[in-house]
Amino acid sequence: MSALLARLLDDAALFPPDPAPPAGALPAYRAAARAPVTGRLRCPASRFAELRAHLVPEDLLDLVLVADTGLEELPEALDAVRDEPRVRLPAVEITIPEDADQARSVAVAVARLPAGVPARVQVRPSTGWRDALDRIAAARDHGIPLGAATRTAPAAFIAACAERDLDFTCTAGTGREAVTLLLGAARAADAAGERDIARILDRTDAADLAAEARKLPDEAAQAARRLLAAVGVRHLGTALAELHRLGLIESPDTGEDMSP
After folding, report:
1. For the residues of 225-248, what is the DSSP string, one character each?
2. Which domains does the chain have, with CATH numbers?
C-alpha cells in the first residue's frame, strides 16, 4: 500500500475556485505534511510573493510552481523561488492559453523552458490534445525532463498517457476520486482499454474501491504510480480523513498506511 499512496496528494488549496489565503493554507499544509501520502504544495507563480511572506524559519517545503503568469515571466518567478531557501522546487507546471492550438503551444513551451527544470505541460480535453501529448512525449524522449498535467483525467487521457509511457498529474475533488484514478492508472498500465478504465472512474462504491486498492500487487501499484505521479486536491485534510475512513491510512494526522 505504501508504494501506491506515497506522496500521492498534492495540496492545491491556493487555486481557484475560492483560493485559500496563505495564512490559512500554510499551517494546514504543514500539519498534513507529516502524512506519507502528502506530496507537494502547488503554488501559482502569481501568488508566490504572497506565500513567501507567510513562511516561517523552520519551513522547508516542496513546491510545484504553476506558471499562471506566462512563459515570459517564468524565469523571474523561478529566480524568486530559487532565492528562497525555505522552499524546494521539484517541478514547474506550464499552462497554455485556452484559445491556443495545443500542439503548437506545447512545442513553443518546450522550446522556451529553462534548461534542466523538470516540468509538466497542462493539456486540456479539447481539440488537439493527443497531438499535444505526442509533442510532450517526443520532448521527453529527447532527454527533456517533461511530463503531462491535466485538470480532469478521463479514461481516454489516461489510456493515451499509458500508450506513450508518459506520466501525468491531475486533480480530484475527494479521496475516493483519487482512489479511482489510481485504479484506473493501474488498469491503463496493464494495457486495459478505455471502456475498462472508464468503468473504474465512474464507480462510487468507495469501500469496494478501497478494498481493490489494498489488494493491488506491488508491481501493479508501482506501475500505477509511474503513470499517475500525483493528484492535486483543494481540501487536503478532508481527503486524508476520507482515506482514513476507507481504511487506506491509519490516521488522518500521521497518514501512516495500513500495510501489515
Report:
1. HHHEEEEEES-HHHHHHHHHHTTS
2. 2-245 (3.20.20.70)
